[in-house]
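Support request, please re-run this one:
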Amino acid sequence: MTAPERTPQQWAQDMLMPGRSIIVDTETSDLGGSILEVAAIDAASGVVLLETLVDPGDVPIHPDAAAVHGLSPDQLAGAPGWPLVFPVLAAVTAGRVVLAYGADFDHGRVLHDCHRFGLDPQHLADRGRWGCIMRARSQAEGTEKNIRLGGARRARGDAEAARVVLQGIAHGHRDDPATGAA
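Re-run finished. Output below.
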């Protein structure tokens, strides 16, 4: 006999346990592009564990992406490159479930940039170690559609908005506590 599947509310409550998970968000040069900014916050406390711009090297920023996050090459000049940022991300996520609002996207971008620079993605390569807050939200609301995040469109703001949604799921809220929208 298999154990019953947890509800989205039970999953969210588990993810909010101290030391259990971390919420990651990235801003990128394009949908299939390189990471320009990454933030990681503790899911339980909201403490920022990583927040940095990332110099993508010679990767151009697509105008549509820039229109969303507002990042320009001038802002990224002097920022550390992915080979310097990744070890910090790997360290803060070690031993935790990695959550993201669109986990498939953020997971894919981390793998993309690790492969681009010949870095071992370590535990972040394991898709089973990632959890998707957007998927849990859709399940909690009884829909199969993806619900947009009412975030700030920068990595830290989006990670914080995703945490608010996770808290709402844990407390049984069916609307977006970040925006008040139903």
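Residues 8-170 form a domain with the Nucleotidyltransferase; domain 5 fold (CATH 3.30.420.10). Helices lie at 8-15, 63-69, 73-76, 82-93, 103-116, 133-140, 155-170.
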